[in-house]
Amino acid sequence: MENAKTYDEAEQAGLIQVRDPLPIKKIWIDKRTGWKGLGSVFFLVAQCAVWVAIYITLVYFYSWFFYFCLAVNAVVCICAMFFEKDAQCRISWLVLFILSCGCGFIMYFMADKRVCYGGQKKKFKEIRERTDCCLASYDLKDAKPAVSNDITYLNKAAGFVPYQNTKIQYYREGSVVFGEIVDTISEAQDFVFMEYFMVSDGTLLDELIEVFRKICSRGVKVRFLYDDQGSSGALRTETIKRIRAAGVEFEAFSKMFAVANFGLNFRDHRKIVVVDGKTGFVAGCNLTDNCVNRNNMEGYWKDAGVRFEGEAVDGLSICFMRQWEIATGRRLDFNEYLRHYDKYESSSYVMPYAGGPENSTDLCRGVYVSLISGAHERLWMSSPYLLPDEAFLDRIIEKAQAGVDVRIVLPSVPDYAYIHRLTKFHAEKVIKAGAKVYYMDGAFVHMKVMLTENAMTVGSTNLDMRAFFEELDNGVYTNDPGCMRGAEEDFMQIFRENNVADIEEHSLGDKMYTDICRLISPLL
Hints:
Distance between the termini: 38 Å
Structural class: alpha/beta
Shape: globular
Largest sheet: 7 strands, mixed
Strand order of the largest sheet: 1-8-6-5-2-3-4
Helix content: 40-55%
Strand content: 15-25%
Radius of gyration: 23 Å
């Protein structure tokens, strides 16, 4: 790939396509990979069918069992009304409990992270206690109050620390991010860490496999963690064998065909690359051709990410190594992979973090909330979806009503129609409060960036409840002026090229469809 560090260089090199509406290819099941995706869905449905069959059998032979389940169902329903964090979730679960004929509590337990993720959470606690000593010390004496509050939250909530003496650069296109990633990996001398939610067959992956083959032949150790559910239907078994044959330790998180695996919403949605402990990458894009606009399934694909070098790379390495141990059960010597960075001088803070059900708090949501709380002049954000909990949406609305410049960038081309309908429903709420919403013409906006006058974060966390409460996500928080300026220029270009959205008129049928989507969305 061409090596282009700025938007203009990338445009001249042909890495960035024109932002005109592109042919949209809605091909969800590829004939080469679809059988695995369909098979995994069938396997999950079969497991659910077994549980239902057991329930029906017990009720048929033991009439008292039905009344027992009704009682348990009522108790669990009452508990759910207290424990669920969002009002819409409570309503959705209440409807399910009423319609489930006494077995709703089974589905509730199977979707609860204390049941589905309890073992991994215990393992993570042990790993964190063993590896907290690898984290650096820090000093916040020169930080602005808002920045200090954000960093303190991340440290108190999950133990992450800020780093200085780090050079960080913002990239406004997925093609540029992956161009840098491929070039940097091809020059690796010691080790490579990669973690992606979706890995898909295509020309981008073929390029990487060739690079893997070359660097592994000269002794570079490559560890690659991918989410089996996220890659289901996109990654062939033959391709997995090719990756492993190249010398890569290619391991799956959350295997689709694991028996009694109902916790499939707890997915590894992170995007992490570390090369030699010297260079780190965090972005919103998956390892797929459409993320670099080679296969425009949802029109033009808009993404963003950062590259950083220096002390903060250690923080990203720790995020990966902890997750590697949870997923594989193979212990790593953390000290072997730390403190390999080159020295830079910078007083800005760069803070890699990773959140998920292993933490006692909803960390990635909390980072956004902290940024929103500290914003008094500007609050710009982008996401493919806008499906947050009511409390989170209320915070955005309050900022808009208080006169803060609130702007949200969303896609005009959806990947799922019902999700886009809900996104527009929530967008209209913030528009009424005075915020500006931009639907990027002919594009699927996949970048997850939040920018205030104080700091910014970029990473893998969407503005939706699944990302907030269930998925494993990651990001980089920073107050680096150059990185913030890059994000600001990216947003400004989007604002110049797209119109501010207005509130639309909706028919009765459209309103009913929206209400139905709102009812079922918390359960998906």
